[in-house]
Amino acid sequence: MNLIKPIQGLRGLAVILVILFHLNPNFSFGFIGVDIFFVISGFVITKSLIESKKINKKFSIINFYIKRFLRLYPSLIIFFIFSSLILIAFSIPTNIGNFLRTGLFALFGVSNFYLIRIENDYFNDEELNPFTHTWSLGIEEQFYLVFPFLI
């Protein structure tokens, strides 16, 4: 798929907003950056599905899920293994069990639900869970599971 320059510009804006939020949590527009990423993802996936159907005269849900898996999971698995080894090797003392469970739930695309259940989020100063950021990946994976059937 060809890159669309306005979409690349929106991605850049979203990155800047998210970085500014992480540098200063009082910067309230960081969430807009995340929302922009979600909208871009929906647009790109929709465009990909429509183009695939035009080219192939049909849509293969299996191929769609294989592509998504190969795009997301190699990095996620490496991140999970590397982060888990660091947590274990350095005996990170606080809630290592919750950290590792969050990572495992991330591998199944539901870390957002687990983080809600244990009441952990970005504003929890007591716990710096390296897998907290996987909540957005969980939402993206859940979107991928449902959205193709709506189209």
What attributes characterize this protein structure?
151 residues; mainly alpha; 6 helices
Number of strands: 0
* Strand fraction: under 5%
Cα-atom radius of gyration: 17 Å
Percent range of helical residues: over 70%
Low-confidence stretches: none
Which sequence of SSEs, written as H and E, runs from N to C? Answer: HHHHHH
Q: Could you please describe the fold and organization of this structure?
A:
It is a single chain. This protein has six helices and no strands. The chain has 151 residues and is mostly helical. The longest helix is centred in the middle third of the chain and has 29 residues, at 61-89. The two termini are 19 Å apart.
Provide a brief overview of the structure:
This protein is an all-alpha fold.
Task: Give me the secondary-structure topology.
Blueprint: H1 5-23, H2 30-56, H3 61-89, H4 96-107, H5 111-117, H6 134-150
